[in-house]
Amino acid sequence: SSGINAEYGEGPISTVINFIQKLAGHNPLPPKEKFSINEMIAALKPYLTSKLSEKINAVALLNLSGEKGGQCLIDFKTRTMVANPTTCHPDVTLHMSVDTLLSMIDNREELMDVYKSGRIKIEGDMQAAKRLGSIF
Fold first, then answer.
1. pLDDT at 3
2. DSSP three-state, residue 77
3. Which residue has the higher pLDDT, 133 or 128?
4. How many CB atoms neighbour CB 84 within 10 A?
5. Spatial strand order in the sheet of 59-65
6. Whole-angstrom Cα distance, residue 65 to residue 42?
7. Per 3-state DSSP, what percentage of the chain is helix, strand, and coil (rounded to 5)?
8. Which of 33, 41, 65, 94 has the smallest count of CB within 10 Å of its CB?
9. φ, ψ at 30 (rounded to 5°)
10. SS3 state of residue 35
11. Rg of the chain on CA atoms, in Å
12. pTM for this one?
């Protein structure tokens, strides 16, 4: 499986998933049995660079369902990540299960299969979602 790549075009769904997958890069998120929001933040934090922050300039909320789910606020404006924020005002919110996130990052599932099955939903500013993918 080739995973997420340019063949899916420039839509907001593909740009957001491209962003998540590129962040994981060669430092993948922990496997499901060790997954937690805090572990995810630790794995992704090194990728939250000032250059990335300037290009994206948005606040994204990952709303992850499932046994080890929760929320992760990624504020590209201030280069911070917060687990299970008590209040937040994201520009874009991504709803998916922990299993879906891990399977896409591990390239076990293709984006179009996940999208067509309705296992990922995006709410909010679609321009912010597009900016997430503009860095690649």
1. 37
2. coil
3. 128
4. 12
5. 80-83, 70-75, 59-65, 92-97, 121-124
6. 19
7. 45, 20, 35
8. 33
9. -60, 150
10. coil
11. 13
12. 0.72
